[in-house]
Amino acid sequence: MKPEATPQGIIAGSIPLFAGHPSRDLLPIDELRRIMSAGWAGRRVGRFLNYGDEQGDSQLIDFLVERFNRSEMLGISRDNLMIIGGSTGGLGMITQHLTRPGDVVLVDAPSYRDALHIFRDYRLEICSAPIDDEGLVISDLARKLRQLAAAGKAPRFYYVAPNFQNPSGITMSRERRLAVIDLSREFGFAIVEDDVYNDIRFGGALPPSFYHLAGGEHVLRLGSFSKTLAPGLRIGWLVAPADWIARFVDSGMLRMGGGANPFTAAVVADYCRSGAWEGHVEWLRGQYRRRRDVALAALDASMPSGLHWTRPEGGYFIWLRLPPSVHVDDLEGRAQARNIYFASGKGFYVNPEAGAHHLRLSFSYVPQAELQAGIEILGGLIARMTA
Amino acid sequence: MKPEATPQGIIAGSIPLFAGHPSRDLLPIDELRRIMSAGWAGRRVGRFLNYGDEQGDSQLIDFLVERFNRSEMLGISRDNLMIIGGSTGGLGMITQHLTRPGDVVLVDAPSYRDALHIFRDYRLEICSAPIDDEGLVISDLARKLRQLAAAGKAPRFYYVAPNFQNPSGITMSRERRLAVIDLSREFGFAIVEDDVYNDIRFGGALPPSFYHLAGGEHVLRLGSFSKTLAPGLRIGWLVAPADWIARFVDSGMLRMGGGANPFTAAVVADYCRSGAWEGHVEWLRGQYRRRRDVALAALDASMPSGLHWTRPEGGYFIWLRLPPSVHVDDLEGRAQARNIYFASGKGFYVNPEAGAHHLRLSFSYVPQAELQAGIEILGGLIARMTA
């Protein structure tokens, strides 16, 4: 069905509005090459080609601790941070250590498709509550928690992407975060905060992180260089209470293999310490904001009435709600016939049919002209389906 | 207790006979730098800095499939091989997908310490059977299997390092491998073959792999570039039946993060395709063989009677059995007082006390003069303890 696709599943000649990764021109290729060449000359090369420390590259840990304490006044120490193999590596590690098959985890509806896939692989019971424009609807979560408690079930953690959520682009408000923290204490679950889009923000300050608001208690906060540097380096970080970091660092997986990729972690450390990262992030914000603007303008211009879409202040994604008369499967077939691929809403729900009238558009990958053209064609298709 | 240690836990000024990793002079640093510089110039850079294919770097898969079909007549296709984050990444993935908490896995006694740690993290019941100079003692395994069956327990898999086992250096004979395969069919367990030392062989041909002898059925074979190229790149491979590879490739972890580190996998692919790897492996064999010879000569010259040690034909490790009067804890304390660190036998058994009179020496890391000096000092210590 999708022949000659790239590793990201992109078919030559198509408009891949589903693609949730940076385009090549957003990767700092030349700067990374320069950093890597310089790194070989130093003393560290013999170390970063060998097994690394279980907690991860020491210089990168120091850099990130300093950054969070400066930019967010997070008040963490080295004992609160470890380097991981992208947020994926961290989420797998957390799920392995914190759950057993049959345990309950809480997610948003919609939530990140691949995270749901991981939870299913671990044979967890996934319980979801809906979000609105301010994030998780607290009364719905509270009702779910009481139902679970009545059934003798205690959720292990709530998985949430608080900022520019994948797929909705929605950021949870400070008030909602505080209410979730209250519920987490009442019902005894942890919060896994997947914050990989934090730095791709177009507007003002974000609400404080769950980690910050909860004073670091029972919160595990994931971050990544995949969105702000290069996904192929597979490097991210986990901020968590010191006793949890210690537990992860002492795991068999890290004892056997050492910490997250020592080679690429050292490259990332050198890149960050050179001062290049902050400037690159600033530049990226402008690039992604322009693409977001193009996408929203195209939606405003081409979508018929009866649709709703989010207007994200950061991240990669816009979330569309189709009219009740348009099923996403039907639209998907017509769009693919025009060589346009989007992410069906169905993948982002525990019960796929809940997403039967939703779709996710990504503005991170497709060039601006194609982004506009693709959305206009989609708008025309939907207009004909609702005429 | 171990201040100022490197990421590999090595204290400055000590003789780290425990260190099971290559020394810096065995890493092809200059050649890797050359390969990496050349790689940046090519078309692939934009791809290997982005998310990769779930199965791993395509060129590296092709290279390895061709290599195994040529050198071992393994008869595999692309569908039988995937790239993994070192053998560790593969063992974690296999354990996650094939077991649930409380399941039984089978191991040798002794077995690889960090693998036992992973199995404990997954809350498995670890059942071991002893090895002798030809590997696993079949009658003991058969007895264990009958006992388990009588208790209603079916092991999920047998974890084995068939060649130059860590910690013993022992290679399992062809006959024993065939007998294990017979038992695996009778009792319905898989075989996880951790073959990371295969290429570090000093003598003639090895027995065929479990994968080969079983015709690829119910065997998962792990390999790695950590021993023959550089551990810090964190790249290995898994050879397995096509339906199992497909299942792993379709996992949430790989869907979310993409395949094993695309950047370092591309570097390894370029290195292998340049033809440099085979020559480097050949050179490494000579280097490690010389170190093994130094270690064995020092043992022959300095150890008092009453000790037994293995004479490995490859790999990194020699396994010593102490006289009954010498407890390894006692020797360890005296050795550390002389700045000599070895791996206590206790970590390699499900029941640590079974290793109370064993220790593992590694000849992969320490320079030859220190290897000899360290073993001579150990010999002197043991002689005084048995006098």
Topology:
The structure is a homodimer of 387-residue chains.
Chain A: E1 15-16, H1 29-41, H2 45-48, H3 58-71, E2 81-84, H4 86-98, E3 104-109, H5 113-121, E4 125-132, E5 135-136, H6 138-150, E6 157-160, H7 174-187, E7 190-194, H8 210-213, E8 219-224, E9 236-239, H9 242-249, H10 252-257, H11 262-273, H12 276-302, E10 308-309, E11 317-321, H13 328-337, E12 340-341, E13 343-344, E14 358-362, H14 368-386
Helix pairs in contact in A: 1-11, 3-11, 6-7, 12-14
Under CATH, the topology of the largest domain in chain A is which? Answer: Aspartate Aminotransferase, domain 2
Our count of helices of chain A gives 14
Number of domains of chain A: 2
- Kindly name the structural category of chain A: alpha/beta
| Biggest interface between chains | A-B, 62 and 62 residues
| Assigned CATH class of the largest domain in chain A | Alpha Beta
Helix percent of chain A reads 40-55%
Q: Biggest β-sheet of chain A: count, sense, barrel?
A: 8 strands, mixed
Order of helices and strands of chain A: EHHHEHEHEEHEHEHEEHHHHEEHEEEH
Give the distance, in angstroms, between the N- and C-terminal Cα atoms of chain A.
30 Å
Q: Point out poorly predicted stretches of chain A.
A: none
β content of chain A, as a range? 5-15%
What's the arrangement of strands in the largest beta sheet of chain A? 2-9-8-7-6-3-4-5
Identify the quaternary structure here. homodimer
CATH architecture of the largest domain in chain A: 3-Layer(aba) Sandwich
Mean pLDDT of chain A: 95
Q: Kindly state the number of beta strands of chain A.
A: 14
Q: Radius of gyration of chain A, Cα only, in angstroms?
A: 21 Å
